[in-house]
Amino acid sequence: MAPTKQQTPHYEFGGPLGAAAISFGLPTLLFVFNFACNDVTGCPAPSLLHPKSLDLETLKHEVGWPENGLQGFLSWNATGWTLAYYLLSAVLYRVLPGTEMEGVELANGGRLKYKLNSFASTMFTLAICAAGTFAQGADFPVWTFIADNYLQLLTANVLFAYFLATFVYVRSFSVKPPGGRKPGDLRELAAGGHKGNIIYDWYIGRELNPRVTLPLLGEIDVKEFMEIRPGLLGWILLNCTFIAKQYRLYGFVTDSIVFVSVIQAFYVLDGQFMEPALLTTMDIVTDGFGLMLAFGDLVWVPFLYSTQTRYLAVHPQSLGPVGLASIGCVLAAGFTIFRLSNSQKNTFRTDPNDPRVKHLKYIQTKAGTRLMVDGWWGIARHINYFGDWLQSWPYSLPTGIAGYTILTAGTGAEGSLKMLDGREVVSGEARGWGMIFTYFYIVYFAVLLIHRDGRDDEKCAKKYGDDWEKYKKIVRWKIVPYIY
Predict the structure, then answer these.
(1) CA distance linking residue 307 with residue 360, whole number of Å
(2) What mean pLDDT comes out for the span 116-121?
(3) Which Gene Ontology terms describe the biological processes this protein takes part in (predicted)?
């Protein structure tokens, strides 16, 4: 008997094939980025600019391919320190003081409790690194180790994300059905995470809020912990690594790499300082925890989002006061929209009678909730996405028309930048091609936000029905006012 329309699973991300492509394609892309835009011969590697005469052995030399092949992608040393890093994050979560808060109401009627201290944890770690840098400068072992073992650290984190996704997937089958739960058991499956297809469920996440109890450390909410702690701090640490690397290569540090690192650190620290707002986001409230979030939190964010500083470490750019001011204006506009709109939403959800929001117009839905049609949320349905996207531009703009080639010492190329070891860096024929790497984040982020908007629209249409259609007629624009 053929399945009815109701029996046909509704998939996102292209279904099982799309989930498999993302699960193994995105890690491959990060490895490609690492090799193609490198500190050995250029960004892109010279041979990539002449694909018709491409020679594999020459290309392997140009991209810094490990001498022992694929074995060189992984090392016990890098893996051990990666696991130690996660353990440190867990220890700081347990021992540092934090605020106890409840999450939103679950489908089973309960509320999970969260300990929030990611900001304190990050500041504690950065204080140690700052002290080490003050004492040892750019040769502080943390910075040199990360720079020298970047490939192996990338591999270790990819494998850890795979392991974590597999662990929570297998463990999710111990979630009891509603009628078989003991009092106080708040475990439940994510609404869209148990389709019955292994690869898809593994990717999207079966359990909504998986939690583990570790010896001496107690209970940890895996999703909230991974979302806000090791990956975001890793992003800052990688940027600091590349600042130190630029100093070791050239003997100076440029305003562009400092600017990018500072604004990205501010983005991270602001998000961690506002950690309570995370508890009302789609990631926490709706999505299960699978490879999608595990890889995104632990690998994609720190290793992709630090691409610009990795580039600038080898090809320094000076912005000057005018350049800094111009890019700063874009950043300020994006941050203002993002922060004020999210703050307004969070206030309205937690206390609609708060003086700051009680005057706002809204639609009272049949589902019992209210949809704002005023203030920031009367401008666009996801005005916060627009602000978030604007903030991504200052990450890439400091790299300019990116692209460089590294020449041997003594070449004497006109307009070249000389490293302390004598090697010379020029834009040359690579000029512009490096933008594939340094501006990729902007394009990717736009696609991600548009996709999130589509997912949210679909979920809200099911939840609110006619009220959602009424809402869309009032708030016409999805993300960008008057454009999209």
Answers:
(1) 41
(2) 96
(3) ergosterol biosynthetic process
